[in-house]
Each structure stands twice: as structure tokens, then as C-alpha cells.
Amino acid sequence: MTPFVSLTERDEQAMLDAIGVASVEELFRDVPEGVRLGRELALPPALSEQEIVAHLEELAALNVPTGRELSFLGAGIYDHYVPAVVDSVLQRGELLTAYTPYQPELSQGVLQAIFEYQTAICELTGMDVSNASGYDGTTVAADACYVAKHATGRSKVVVTEATNPQVRQVVKTYAPGFALEVVEVPHRGGVTDPEEVAAAAQDAACVLFQHPNFFGCLEPAPELAAAANDAEALAVAHVDPLSLGVLEAPGRYGCALAIGEGQAAGNHQSFGGPHYGFLAAKSEFIRRMPGRIVGETVDAAGERGYVLTLQTREQHIRREKATSNITTNQTLLALGGLVYLSWLGPQGLRELGETCMALAQHAKTRLEEAGLEPTFSGKATFKEFAVRVGRNAGDAIRDARARGVHPGYALGRDYPGLDDALLVAVTEKRTPADIDRLVEVLAR
Amino acid sequence: MKLIYEKSQAGRTGYTLPRHDLPRAEVPEALRRGDPPRLPELAEPELVRHFTELSTRNFGIDTGFYPLGSCTMKYNPRVNERLAALPGFRDLHPLQEEDGAQGALALMWHLQEALIEIAGLHACSLQPAAGSQGELTGLMLMRAYFAERGEDERRRKIVIPDTAHGTNPASVTMAGYELTPVKTDPRGNIDVEDLRARVDEHTAGLMLTNPSTLGLFDEHIEEIAKVFHDVGALMYYDGANLNAVCGISRPGDMGFDIVHINLHKTFSQPHGGGGPGGGPIVVRERLEPYLPAPQVIRDVDDFFLDYDRPKSIGKVRGFTGPFGVFVRSYAFIRMWGPELRCMSEIAVLNANYLLARLRDAYDLPYDRLCMHEFVVSARRLKREHGATALDVAKRLMDYGFHPPTVYFPLVVPEALMIEPTETEPKEILDEFCDAMLAIAREAADSPELLKEAPHDRPVKRLDEVRAAKRAIVRYRFEDHPDVGDGPVEPRQLEAQKGA
């Protein structure tokens, strides 16, 4: 049984004859004896389509996805609604099964879609140029630091501690190769103090902060950006795309780059991927951008068309002097983002943001009425907030899950001293009745 | 075709959202959005038509033959799409507790085991998001390994042949290493004499694609491995061309210590017009302690995420990698089972058949049997008729084919790099060869047919120089004032909603 191939015995013989060899084995004569496997691969026996479906349905049933549990889990990946049009467009075979658009005349569909995506990201973030996507919300942070290093000639990057721990970890993993030193600025009661950022930003290539931050709190973002700019460091905002209908665009308050995790806008959770990271910048950084960029041009008849452009930044031309090694990015997921943002439009984006905020605010109030204090009192939040559960948050999660509710993320996993803090995310998929249920299982 | 922004009409909406009777949460004035983003405003029917029209202006493996060398454009099984969309996978949060993610962790563990067997090595991390990130991760492992031995400061050089993918040298720079190039010999192998002169105690390792980007298996691979291992250096295998050798010769058997595998090439993850991909790395035992955290581990029948990895290089991506890609590639591997060897054999048979039929009309830089792909040169067409590799590529579009990779590898002038994969029937291979032969004749008889190609695509040949010079990289609303009514104030939107 050889799945997905068309070869018949007759074809095989005709092809071997044309090549002038007696057997397929002979085609491998350049492979030295000493490096051959010489046995069958030790893999489980082949399965038919029906059997692989049964096998994977069985594995899938061992998981507890959102939907089988009432979930308030966020911390970077969110259970927002993905409209049917998104999945439908992404299953178009012409888009799904294409490679990177190296041949523009056969790829106008994907190229135009990326151009439209770049435009949407620029509009959201207030920037002039966006790449075609990065791997996720963590790697675009490392990319941004690399841009900042080359743009400023400095080798220190400042990251706020209230930035997603995974983002900080990835920046630290990349830092030695980039010859960068990473300095973290602690949070003060859930938000970052601009004066501490100002002090740390001296001689820094960039200041990277998340807004709303990992705790869901709104940062004094314009002041953080100003602190960076005063030290001639680049301000880099890591933002939630769905917050940008209600929160100001980073490009309007002095940021040089805006980055983020795109999953909330149009991608399923999928146990962490594949998703898309976005990276947008002011025009002065265009030639330092990592990744693919699509540009407008004209064809031989003067008609408008789209191509991959500014490729002299890229690895296949510049090799060791490239701005990045990235080739395969997350185009299909970014296309999902474009379809989603087009479905929402400006009005839907704002309404969605307001809905999430109102639901989260309602949850905060109801929990407080039930005797649970906010971890960071008096701080404005977006769709996520931290609450003190009066005991180890891990234990509270375990007990709540036994009652069919996943109440959130235990902040003590990343922040020593916050062991009783639960990070609760409330998307538009949760209802006031769901929130009643959350309060019921968390109240003691 | 119009851009979606040119189809937008102020006040038109496509979304529906649940409404709750809850008090508004106020955004502090200083943080509130001023002008709304100019996202498209369309109702859903026009939205669907827009993206459907875009899809008709694109070419995928579903559309036709796509022999793009080094990209392994094989058929992407439809069942994999159904599997990745199972709610138990699609709607699973990556921070779900381990007891609520046993199916996902089991799938990842079994995929790791399969990749370890295919690579002939000992441990696997699925975390890297794509091949080039796998490369970078592999180089970070080298640094961690040598740092622990106190050799990191001394070993600064990575050897890369001149045929390598551009990602290899770019990754070397990003990892903080220096590049040592090595030449290709007249048979298309690494020039071992040149290599010996360049490898010493300052060498950290080699990055090699085998078979190479010329589609040739390096006949001296054992000797090469000895050169590196004799000086204590490591060998990195770029898995871009793994489709040639599954079940035949494993990178570990060849002497490599670190391998990345492109799940979107060999293991059928659809490439989506530029991603997603998956770039797991598989390593020899002594490199296992440095793999990214967390690692998926098994204890009898239970699966866990191991974060307690003190020697780990850290995280290279969020969570545990692109899980949806793992579902598809795992299903693909399970449907082939041990017969994966046949997959590679057919891929190699298909490539050699194309080569046999094209070798007289095009120049063959290295006269050998090929593996899963091969490179021919259009230099004779260029010299005699002025028709370039690019012209051949564009003319192929008129015959209904996606062109091969062109102008790569750099060591072959006017290169056309052709990879048919195992999923093409003989009739398609024949039609492609007929087209390539016809184009070679056209180059002599009517070269303008090539120069002006493509003829029947939605666009003619595009001016890439102009795109780079003027750099229009987003829609410029201000240049098109006649489109829509421009951005609408939020208050105006409220009024329209009420009306």
C-alpha cells in the first residue's frame, strides 16, 4: 500500500528503461555502503485513512479542549471566536497548497493578500511597514531586538518584567548569538514605572514593553515610549491586536516598532500553534526589517501587481549579511488574520474590545463582591486580570477543574511571590452566566 | 483586481457579536484610540467573493505540477486537514494542565520517536517553527555544548559549502558564529582537499545538505565526517532534502550529530503560500541536555512536559511548537509506516526520469544520476538564443506548470532546479518534459515567446526593480481619495448602528 502515489509497475519499467538502469536500487549507487540503513525503518505498520482517523480521534478525545471545560485560560493564547469564513478561505487549495510566492505571475492571490494584511497591521498599529509575518509573538520580539541593535549600534535591550514570560525567555535565548545583554525592569503593583524605564534605557538599543501587559493591566504606554525616546532607544510595543480598536496605536505615541502575537485575531488555539507573529515599524527601519515584504509594482502592460520586494535584505541574496534567516513564515495564519480583521472591520474591532472589557470588568466586580481581591488593585485592565484566590492558585485551578471550570493561569509559575494569583481571561465567548459559574467555583 | 480596501464602504459591516447588558468599562483618556484603523468594511458575501477571487489568481499543488526544487511540493493529504480540525486538537489551549492534554502530548511523543528513527539519532525537540529556526537552534546547541567544554571561545567557525541554502550562512551570523566557505569539486561533492585545509581546532562544525542542493549525494560523506569528528567538531544536517533518503540512509548513519526536519516538505504539511512550517531538530545523545525546554517525556503510560532542564538553551518559540503541523505530519508518517522508503524511492525515480528526458536539451553541470532533484542549466539557450533560465520559467507558466527554482544553487549559471516529488504520475512528468523540450525549441525558433511570457496569466511579467526602488508596501488611502468616504468617526458609527 503506497498512499498518494500514482506509480504502476508498467510506469516504473518504462521509466527505468528511459533512465537506462535495471532497478530503482541502482539509482542509489552514489550512497556509500557504510552509511546505508540496511534494514526496514522501525515504524509502526502503515494505517489506512479510516484507521488513522480512528486513531487520532481517540487521541483527540484524551484532551480537554475549550468547550469541554468552561475556560478562562489566556496568558497569551485566547479563546476568541473564529468565524466560519476564516476556515473556509484557508481551505482553498490554491492558497493552502502554494509555496512562498517566488513566481509572482502565479501567485498574485497570496501576494495581494499579504499586501492587504500588511496594510491591516499598519492600520492597527499606526506603523508604515509590516512584514508578511513572523513565527509567533515570541520570535518577533527577538527580531525587533535585532533591528534595534543594528539601528542604534547599541547592545543592551530593556524588557519589562510585566512582558509575557515566554517572550522574555525567547529574547534571552537569542541574545547571546546577537551579542545582546538583556536587562529587565520590574513591575510595581502590576504596571511599569516610566522613571525606572528611563534609568534603564540609557545606552539601550530598545525598550520592549507589553501593553496591555501580561497581567492584563494597561501600562502607561506613552510614558514608557517617551522614556525610551529620551534615551534615544527604540520603543517597541508588544500589543494585543484585538485591543487596538479601543487602545491607541503604538505608532501614535512614539513607538518605532509594534509587534505581537496574532492568534487572538483569527487563529484557533491549536495547543500553541501554528499562529502568526506580526512585526511593523516606522518607515525609517524598512531596510532593516526581517522577513518577507510584499510591494506594489506594475507588469509589462502597466497594470498593477504585487511582488516580494526589498529582497536584498534577505538570506537568499545577502546570505551571512542578511537581516534574518527567516524564509518560511506564517502566511496562511496571517491570511486568517486578514480575513478575520476584514470580517470585523473597524466597528466590529472596537465593539469586540469593548465587549471583552465589559465582561472582564463584570467578572472582576463579581469576584470582588464574592470576597476575592484583585492582585493589583486600582489598575485598569483590558480582557484579562489577576485575582487573589486566598491559597495556592494551582490548588484553586485543580479544584475548579474538578467542577468543570478552568479558571485561569497560575501566575506563581513565572512570578515568585504571586503564588495566590490567578490570571483570568474573559473573551467575548464567555457570558455573564459563565462568569457566575466562575465566581461560584472560586468563592470559598 | 481591486484591493479589499477599494471595495470597502463606510458603515458597512460583516460581523455579528453577542451583546450583553453590562456597564461599559472606561479606557483612560490618555490611552484611548483616536482615529479608528481603516480596516475593510464589507458584508460577508463580498468578503467571501474577494478571497475566492484571490484564490483563483494563485497556483498551488492542488492546481498543478509544482517542481520547485528544494521545496518538496508534494500532494497534501486532505484527511490531514480534517484531523487538525478535530475540536480536541484545534480548541486545546497550550497551557491546559498535562492531565487535560494527554492526547496532544502522546501525539507529540510518538512523532518525536518516529523522527528519531528516521534521522537515526537519539532525542528530538519539536519546538522550532521552521527549517531556518531549526538551523539556528542547532547552532545554539553547538555553542552550549562547546561552552560546557570550555571551547566556545576557541571554536568560532562553521563550515558551509558554496551550494548551501542562504539560510545556512544567515543562521551562522545570527548564532554569533563566523562562516568558513568550502568549495564544490568537479563531481558536485564537497572538495575534500579544500575542506581539510579549512577545518581545525577553531572549527565548531559543518552545516550540510545531503543530498546537496545539486540533488547529488556526497560520495565522500564518511571521509567528511571523519575530518570533523577528528578535530572534535560537530556536524549539522539541513533536512531540506530528506525526501531523497528516508529509510535508505539516515543522517545519523552518515555521521551527523544534529538534524532539522522540514515537516512542510518531507512530511506534507501544506505550505500555505509561505508557511506555516515545522522545523523539529533531532540530535545525538550528548546534545540532548541542551535541547529547548520544555521537552515532551513519557513515564509508562503518562506524558509530561519537562521544564527542569538546567543545561537547556532555553525557549526558541512559544509553548511546544506548531502543534497543528505535528498532527498532519504524524498522520502522514503513520499512513506510510515503514514503507517511507518507497516514498523516497519513487521521488528519486521520478527525478531521474525527468533528468533522462531533459539532459540533451539542457546542460547538465554534473553528469551523474540524481537523487530527488537535479539542476540543469539554460546557459546554452542564453548564449545561442538569448533566452535565460527566467525566460524558460515564465514560459512554463503558459504550459500550465509552476516553474522550477531558478538561479539556485549559485554555483551553476542559469540554474533550473527541478524536484518532482513522489506524488506525480508519469503522464504529468511526460507533459512537463514535452513542455521543457518545446521551450528549448522555441528559444531557437521564436525567442520572443519566451521573452514575453507569461501570456495568459492575470498579470504579465512584473517589474521587480521598480517595486524595490519605490517600495509601496501598504495601501495608501491618501492617494485614492475617491475610494469610500474615508475613516468614520466612532460617534457617527454609533448613530448608524442606532438608525
CATH superfamily assignment of the largest domain in chain B?
A: Type I PLP-dependent aspartate aminotransferase-like (Major domain)
| Portion in helices of chain A | 25-40%
Widest sheet, order of strands of chain A: 2-10-9-8-7-3-4
What's the number of helices of chain A?
A: 13
Largest sheet of chain A: 7 strands, mixed
CATH topology of the largest domain in chain A: Aspartate Aminotransferase, domain 2
Assigned CATH architecture of the largest domain in chain A: 3-Layer(aba) Sandwich
Shape descriptor of chain B:
globular
Summarize the structure.
Chain A has helices at residues 9-19, 49-61, 84-90, 93-96, 108-125, 139-152, 165-178, 194-200, 221-230, 315-318, 331-369, 393-402, 432-442; strands at residues 70-71, 129-130, 156-160, 181-185, 187-188, 191-192, 206-211, 234-239, 257-261, 277-281, 294-298, 304-308, 384-388, 405-406, 409-410, 421-425. Chain A has 444 residues and is α/β, with parallel strands linked by helices. In chain A, the strands form 5 sheets. A 7-stranded mixed β-sheet of chain A has the order 2-10-9-8-7-3-4, with helices on both faces. A 3-stranded antiparallel β-sheet of chain A has the order 13-16-15, with helices on one face. In chain A, strands 1-14 form a two-stranded parallel ribbon.
Keywords, separated by commas or semicolons:
A: alpha/beta, Aspartate Aminotransferase, domain 1, 2 domains, seven-stranded mixed beta sheet, three-stranded antiparallel beta sheet, about 35% helix, about 15% strand, B: about 500 residues, alpha/beta, Aspartate Aminotransferase, domain 2, globular, disordered C terminus
Describe this structure as you would to a colleague.
The complex is a heterodimer of chains A (444) and B (499). Chain A has 444 residues and is of the alpha/beta class. In chain A, 36% of the residues lie in helices and 14% in strands. Chain A has a 7-stranded mixed sheet, with helices on both faces. Chain A starts with 8 loop residues before the first helix and ends with a helix. The mean pLDDT of chain A is 97. By secondary structure, chain B is an alpha/beta fold. Chain B has 2 domains: 258 residues, Type I PLP-dependent aspartate aminotransferase-like (Major domain) (Aspartate Aminotransferase, domain 2, 3-Layer(aba) Sandwich), CATH 3.40.640.10; 110 residues, Alpha-Beta Complex (Aspartate Aminotransferase, domain 1), CATH 3.90.1150.10. In chain B, strands 1-7-6-5-4-2-3 form a 7-stranded mixed sheet, sandwiched between helices. A 3-stranded antiparallel sheet of chain B has the order 10-12-11, with helices on one face. In chain B, a hairpin with an 8-residue loop joins strand 11 and strand 12. The radius of gyration of chain B is 26 Å and the shape is globular. At the A-B interface, helix 1, helix 2, helix 3, helix 4 and helix 5 of A face helix 1, helix 2, helix 3, helix 4 and helix 5 of B.
